[in-house]
């Protein structure tokens, strides 16, 4: 992946980028040519199209990728995954870890050892709790 920074923080596509992807799809532009124009890796655009593809058995002629609909689907997925907001007890356990100078791996392993029903992955832990050190 030349031209793209590796290890960079993942950012969601903006609605303007999704609409541009939609127009490129309708004009049959290959994903390989879309990537440099949108300034995103090819895989990100492929994943976006795959995850937000709309299909309906009743309206086959309307199947396809639509930018605005994709933006709404992505927002719904993001809202459903806010585990630390939905479970305050889990958030309390995650936040008290950095206060004890634990890393994210230590917090996850401690939850596993204690047999916690709810667990978190590294991406779920907000980076702002580590900046208070």
- Low confidence ranges: none
**Mean pLDDT figure:** 77
The description of the largest β-sheet is: 2 strands, antiparallel
String of helices and strands: HHHEEHHHH
Continuous helix count = 7
Shape: elongated
| Neighbour order of strands in the largest sheet | 1-2
Strand content is under 5%
- Radius of gyration, taken over Cα atoms and rounded to an integer in Å: 19 Å
Oligomer: single chain
Count of the domains: 2
* Helix vs. strand class: mainly alpha
Describe how the helices and strands are arranged.
Blueprint (H helix, E strand, L loop, with lengths): L14 H12 L4 H8 L3 H10 L1 E2 L9 E2 L1 H14 L2 H4 L1 H12 L4 H10 L20
Antiparallel strand pairs: 1-2
Summarize it:
This protein has helices spanning 15-26, 31-38, 42-51, 67-80, 83-86, 88-99, 104-113, and strands spanning 53-54, 64-65. With 133 residues, it is mainly α. The two termini are 35 Å apart.
Output the keywords.
mainly alpha, 7 helices, 53% helix, two-stranded antiparallel sheet, 133 residues
Structure description:
With 133 residues, this protein is mainly alpha-helical. It has 2 domains: 15-80, no CATH class; 83-130. Helices cover 53% and strands 3% of the residues. It contains 7 helices and 2 strands, in the order αααββαααα. The protein has helices spanning 15-26, 31-38, 42-51, 67-80, 83-86, 88-99, 104-113; strands at 53-54, 64-65. The protein has a two-stranded antiparallel ribbon. Helix 1 packs across helix 4. The longest helix has 14 residues, at 67-80. It is elongated. The mean pLDDT is 77.
